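haha ok so turns out i had the wrong file open the whole time. this is the CORRECT one, sorry everyone. sequence first:
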Amino acid sequence: MDSSVATVRYRARRWVLGPDDRVTVGRGSRCTVRLPDDGHLSRLAAAIQLVGGAVLVSNTSATKPFVVRPPVGEDLVVAPGAAIGPPCGRFAVVLAGSLGDEFVEVDGPARESAPMRPGIVTRSADTFTGPDRFTAAQHRVVAELCRPLLTGSGTAARPATYAEIGERLGLSPQYVRNVLKVVRENLTGYGIPGMVAAEQIPNDDFRLPLARWALWNGWVNRGDLGDPSGE
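then structure:
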């Protein structure tokens, strides 16, 4: 993809953005990308432009969020008034209508930054003060926990269940649960928040916070899945 342009596609139409171009998305008559006349969709929902060689997506609605969906990984929620520079060159802006989702596809310059959720600050490898290493067995279990987030998108981008991890590694779901519990407790001891519940909250399913921490801090990546396809 030419680093000086981005392409926006909606249904059968296509627009090419240069550095000074801006595409607006919504059901309003003046929008570049005209969505169906559906009251669940904003009149002016989003703006897409090329800034400094990267695509910037802004939520121009007063009340309605939308999501940016990368080819793999979690949806990135963009709140009203917020903006995001998606961490990948190709993605879709997904807007919820009354009869289903509307997809505006964007193909821009490649990005190499790590996937992050908007508004979340994570520690870099230089500042992380957690354990120097975990065991190989712990790492394998956490890698399998992250597998769907590294290979799926949309609703498929979620942490693996204890049963799914156990089936892939030949372990019992309870053993997997115990391994992940030990990892979470170790991280909590090093000051990583959100890995264990307060005493008054009995829910102990912290698979998503642990998976996000592992991915955002570079402890797990696609190469850790152990097969070329990542399937």
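The chain has two domains: 6-107, 136-225.
again sry for the mixup
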